[in-house]
Amino acid sequence: MSAPDPDPDPAPYAAPYTAPYPAPWLPAGCFAGQTAFVTGGGTGLGLAVATRLGELGASVACASRSVEHHEELIARGEARGFGVQSIAMDVRDAGSVKDAVRATVERFGGLDVIINNAAGNFVRPSLSLAPKGFAAVTDIALNGVFNVSRAAGRVLRKTGGAIVNISAPYAATGKPGVVHSAAAKAGVESMTRTLAAEWASLGIRVNAVSPGPFESRGAADRLWPSEELERAVLSQIPLGRFGSAEEVAELVGFLASPLAAWITGAVWTMDGGWSLPTPLVDADGDKVRRRRSVD
To answer: Which of 39, 43, 231, 236 is deepest in the core (most CB within 10 A)?
Structure first.
């Protein structure tokens, strides 16, 4: 009788593998009595984050240039029982930001969580990108994060709190076609670590989430406007699917919650492997064949 194979091949997943969608996992009420300030909270990821924080007990201030975008969040707050304040604010304008933070504190009596989600992006080759276009994106996605963080920090230094910034994987890797956003997000990640170290003694935690491509109408319209581009992006994700705004929002909520009380200065990448190198071999393929030497 032959001995069993000491290293049997595991039963493989059906190829290509597609990651399942996780269920919400944050505990109910973990933001009870807290106030969250979410920039760009009326659409896309911002809407998902603002909704989730509200469901978990927070009162939510939604701040962006167009208050018309807040109608869905207001409706969700009414239906699900959490308070929503709609604020017109331009993150590029420090005075506008200061007024919005002050209005939030006056309405809800305090401030606990900041989500820096507002951003601007579009695909453009660098040689075709006008300086004005570069400045427009960095002014929102980098300067805006500082403006909000500074205004909120001047409130949070009295009580402590949490800031979560939204970055992107190409902040670390670069990405042709989005030099403006890549530069801005790299700055956001450096700012995250700098403020985390500087403000830790004040009880202010600062972290970032770096989501890869996820299902969002706004993202699709700007970043993969054709079916051909959408298929190309999907083919670059090893775990086989786009993310969802809801699963990204769950991670954002975790980093903003007391459950992450000992986490600061961290950048959490959540992209299905999109930012990883392309494999040189198939995981279930044959061994790599070596070159034959030529005499």
So the answer is: 39
Which phi and psi angles does 164 have, rounded to 5°? -125, 120
Task: Give the residue from 58, 118, 96 showing the smallest Cα distance to 256.
Answer: 58
Cα separation, 266 vs 241, whole angstroms: 25
Residue corresponding to tokens 């491509």: 213
Distance CA 194, CA 80 (A): 37
Judged against a pLDDT cut of 70, whether residue 66 lies above it is answered with: yes
6 prior amide bond cis, ω within 30: no
CATH class of 35-270: alpha beta
For 165, the token pair is 């910034």
pTM of this structure: 0.91
Nearest to 181 by CA among 219, 153, 230, 238: 219
Mean pLDDT of 80-108: 98
> What tokens appear for 141 in the block?
């996605």
Better pLDDT: 136 or 10 = 136
Q: Count of H helices and E strands in the chain?
A: 10, 9
User: How many whole angstroms separate alpha carbon 38 and alpha carbon 235?
Assistant: 32
Query: What residue spans of 123-225 are helical by DSSP H?
Result: 131-138, 144-156, 170-173, 179-199, 217-223
Contact of 268 with 248, CB cutoff 8 Å: no
Active-site annotation, residues: 170
Secondary structure element (H or E) that encloses residue 97, with its range: helix 94-108
Residue at 262: amino acid letter = W
Q: Map out the domains of the chain as residue ranges.
A: 35-270
